[in-house]
Amino acid sequence: MSLEKVLVHIDADQDAALARLIDLLKIESISTDPAYAGECDKAADWLVDDLKSIGFDASKRPTPGHPMVMAHGDQTDGTHVLFYGHYDVQPVDPLELWNAAPFDAKIEDTPNGPVIRGRGSSDDKGQLMTFVEACRAWKTVTGSLPTKISIFFEGEEESSSPSLVPYMNENKDELQADVALICDTGMVEPNTPSIVTMLRGMVKAEFTITGPSKDLHSGMYGGPSINPLRVMSQALGALHDETGRVTLEGFYDGVPELPANVAEQWNNLDFDGDKFLNEVGLSKPAGEDGRSVLEMLWSRPTAEINGMWGGYTGEGFKTVLPSEANAKVSFRLVGQQDPDQVEAAFKKHIESHLPEDCTVTYHSTSGDSASNMAIDHPAFEKARNALSNEWANEGVFVGCGGSIPIAGHFQDIVGLETMLIGFAQDDDSIHSPNEKYDLRSFHKGIRSWARILDALSQTE
Ligand SMILES: [Zn+2]
Predict the structure, then answer these.
(1) Measured in angstroms, how far is the CA atom of residue 181 from the centroid of ligand 1?
(2) For the chain, which terminal residue's Cβ has fewer other Cβ atoms within 10 angstroms, N or C?
(3) 309 CA distance to ligand 1 centroid (A)?
């Protein structure tokens, strides 16, 4: 009953909601540039005031960097959700590539429908306001929030979040909830709402293989002298076998097969692997044989050589036999793969390719495990159903090839399962000139959260 009225109110309140978003977008909260610290503070204040106007107990919390915003709703019943978003934005340069002023957001008609254009419209002010507006609509129509809600906004997401982990550790108790919600991701297709449930982890290694004690002339020493670049290319060339599998010992330990229901959701997507590759000048998937492009991107681990150098790379030619070869290598991890085990297996692999006169030095290595959400937690299916009711296509559980550290922090520090639900589209140009957010995403995003909150409020 109430939900229908809330949705009607959201439709009627669109212009006002948009005006509020435009107001927030005017604040130049670029977190990485100290010159804009005052603006970041202003954005935090704006959000505190706005949340207070909806009845939240909201406050700005100082950190050594930009402030956090914490807020708690007045409803004490129902599933307790903790919502996360970030109010800081990326710098706007190169300014000359913008068609309009980045901090004077305007509505614009495009062939794909109306958009709001401006820095932060999609990442992440427009997205976080979808949730705030859904709360406002519930409060306005029914006099209270539908379920127990806490809100956590960060102002340093675009500058590596230096204060985030210390803050979360210090405020663990206040961040407790039943489930965390994050609105900072996109939709897999324009009409298919998506819940990210798996994020790949990563192991990185930078290292040098050393052979002769100094650079040699290949005319005088070539033949008897081992060339570390040859050793390096053999070692890295052996990282994959001819079927595209990574050859490290135990590498696939903890790599799960997709649950059948998720595999089916992915098979039903319109995603065209060929088109995806064609757009970047490729035609043949280079991952493991027998895996779809989506699996390769979301649910399978990888090994990549990110950089490899040594010897003479300048203009002209120099017949050097170099003393050193260098490389940066990274692995994307999935499932329960253990970063320490992958790092150890990689070092063993390199070692096994080292001839007698070569040594290896590691300059830096680091590892983070993958995040996997417990999709059997009842909140996931409730949210997916709520999204399916709003959009043309059914909601899907998707993966994300990259990493979103906050999701892992909620799991590791607070012990919370996290649902990443976002309404951004691939062509939103986040972090680039002319960033935009579809008005349709903004509108249906608000309606989606109204439905999700309603679904989560029903505890049985
Ligand atoms: Zn973001």
Answers:
(1) 14
(2) C
(3) 33
pLDDT digits (tens, 9 = 90+) for 16-49: 999 999 999 999 999 999 999 999 999 999 999 9
Quote the ligand 1 centre to 299 CA distance (angstroms): 22
Measured CA to CA, the distance from residue 92 to residue 120 in angstroms comes to 10
Q: How far is the CA of 18 from the centre of ligand 1 (A)?
A: 19
Ligand 1 geometric centre to CA of 407 (Å): 12
- Report how far ligand 1's centroid is from the alpha carbon of 120 (Å): 9
Cα 130 to middle of ligand 1, angstroms: 14
Interval between CA 211 and ligand 1 midpoint (Å): 45
Q: Would you say residue 160 has pLDDT above 70?
A: yes
| Alpha carbon of 158 to ligand 1 centroid (Å) | 7
Q: What is the pTM of this model?
A: 0.89
Residue 236 CA, ligand 1 centroid: distance in Å: 34
Nearest to 87 by CA among 50, 57, 117: 50
Q: Which pLDDT band holds residue 404 (cuts at 50, 70, 90)?
A: confident
How much distance in Å is there from the Cα of 209 to the middle of ligand 1? 38
Q: How far is the CA of 84 from the centre of ligand 1 (A)?
A: 11
The rounded Å distance from CA 156 to ligand 1 centre is 10
Q: Give a three-class secondary structure readout of the chain.
A: CHHHHHHHHHHHCHHHHHHHHHHHHCCCCECCCHHHHHHHHHHHHHHHHHHHHCCCEEEEECCCCCCEEEEECCCCCCCCEEEEEECCECCCCCHHHCCCCCCCCEEEEECCEEEEECCCCCCCHHHHHHHHHHHHHHHHHHCCCCCCEEEEEECCHHHCCCCHHHHHHHCCCCCCCCEEEECCCECCECCECEEEEEECEEEEEEEEEECCCCCEEHHHHECCECCHHHHHHHHHHCCECCCCCECCCCCCCCCCCCCHHHHHHHHHCCCCHHHHHHCCCCCCCCCCCCCCHHHHHHCCCEEEEEEEEECCCCCCCCCEECCEEEEEEEEEECCCCCHHHHHHHHHHHHHHCCCCCCEEEEEEEEEECCEECCCCCHHHHHHHHHHHHHCCCCCEEEEECCCCHHHHHHHHHHCCCEEEEECECHHHCCCCCCCEEEHHHHHHHHHHHHHHHHHHHCCC
